[in-house]
Amino acid sequence: MDVLYFFKKRTQFIRYYYETAGLPFFETKRKIENEEAPYDDPPYSEDGEPPYLDQWIEADEALEVLGRTCLSMLSPSLKLYFGTWEKELGIIWDNGERDRVFKKGFLKGYRKCFEKVLRISWDHCPADLELIEQITLARNRDQHPDEIASMRVRYAKNDLKKYPRPFFMSESDKDLLDNLEIGSGIWMNPSVYVSRDTLYGAITETERLAEWLEEYMFAARYNQAKYI
């Protein structure tokens, strides 16, 4: 099986899905910002809010959810890539060893697994492994929201201890973080925000990781069964 080919088919689909599903929301925001029809004749209002603010916020929120959805597709795609190669390589685990190695997540587990089986050093990996770790973190936050009153998903305090400046964060939250007075304690945890740029950046890093691994995977493919 050409594992890399099928992995890239998935990443290609994620890009396609984001662009296609996001088009109406991008268009709504663009039309509102440029006062194009049907957003060129706002009703009379004395509340001081920009016209069509609710519609703009709704479209922006939809894009926020779409970005997290696509990231939630990317994380299991990478897991499938690793898992398929695990089968292709015929890796055999000692009793209970796999559970122990994967206790802290599939990414850490497969890093240890392939480091031993492929005899590689992750220091030579050209992909941003810290960014890739944050894909799974953001995905987990999206799958386990804390509030029913909002579609936004926020990082937990423990997440911020590990990643004080998360990769998947809005520009407004970045500005707030940059301007936050140390010890003020008045700022809420930032939201998990997946823009087009950060989504595509994450996809690129996973592809770079898979491309780097392929040479080592094929070199080990036809050797005898690997025991861990």
Short description:
With 228 residues, this protein is mainly alpha-helical. It is 61% helix and 2% strand.
List the helices and strands and how they pair.
Layout lengths: L2 H31 L19 H36 L2 E2 L4 H5 L4 H12 L11 H15 L13 H6 L8 H9 L16 H26 L4 E2 L1
Parallel strand pairs: 1-2
Helix pairs in contact: 1-2, 1-8, 2-5, 2-8, 5-8
Description:
By secondary structure, the protein is mainly alpha-helical. 61% of the residues lie in helices and 2% in strands. The chain is built from eight helices and two strands. It has helices at 3-33, 53-88, 97-101, 106-117, 129-143, 157-162, 171-179, 196-221, and strands at 91-92, 226-227. It has a two-stranded parallel ribbon. It is elongated. The two termini are 23 Å apart. The relative contact order is 0.15.
